[in-house]
Amino acid sequence: MQYLHQFSLVLHIIVGSCALILFWVPVLAKKGSKIHNQAGRAYTYSMQMVALSGILCCFLVLLDPIVIYQASYSQALNKALFIDTARERASFLLMLSFLVLTSVMHGVRALRDKASRQSLMRADMVVNYIALCCSALYVGYLGSRGGHILYMVFSVLSLVIVIRMMRYSFANTVKPGQWVVEHLSAMIGSGIAAYTAFSAVGGRYLLAELLGEQAILMAWLAPTIIGTIGLIITKRRYR
Fold first, then answer.
1. How far apart are CA 180 and CA 121, in angstroms?
2. What pTM did the predictor assign?
3. Distance between CA 66 and CA 79 in Å, rounded?
4. Which of 7, 51, 118, 184 is deepest in the core (most CB within 10 A)?
5. CA 125 to chain centre
């Protein structure tokens, strides 16, 4: 189990690092151009791999954090607290992984289906919506129980995003050209989730060195704030 976690984690880090850079190519390239389309496909495949490897890592930690973190667990003074903390963090990252996967799949299918939205209503997509809803509710519960502002903020954001996705997917009618805005919103949202996960875990120690411990919460929220502003501008432009 530990080796499977390590392999998935290495894959997650390598592909995720490439995806964080690749995200900007379709964002900055002319929409509909060859570069935009090719980079968009590469970004989609890489983010799906990142999300799936992240989901696997989180499930393994939730299943048995002692085996996954043997060295750290043996040095922990409070064993029960260590296990609870590991599972809480895994639950938060699992929610972000579901958010990335659901956003990417929603964005790709919105583009492919356009006004029909047929594949957005299929069972596999509904499972993604439900998984994101359930994980967001659970993370919200963990945040309210432990007073973790970060958990509560992203729990609410994830719920708002998935509800908006489901409203679009199952609406009786949608505005002409709404699929363009839906595609862009979902793909930018996946990037926000990916950069948030990086700030919360992978880049945490780097950010602590650069900004100090007191600024880490702001660093976690920065991708959402910047991404939301960009999203509003993009929506207005294409509408």
1. 18
2. 0.86
3. 9
4. 51
5. 16
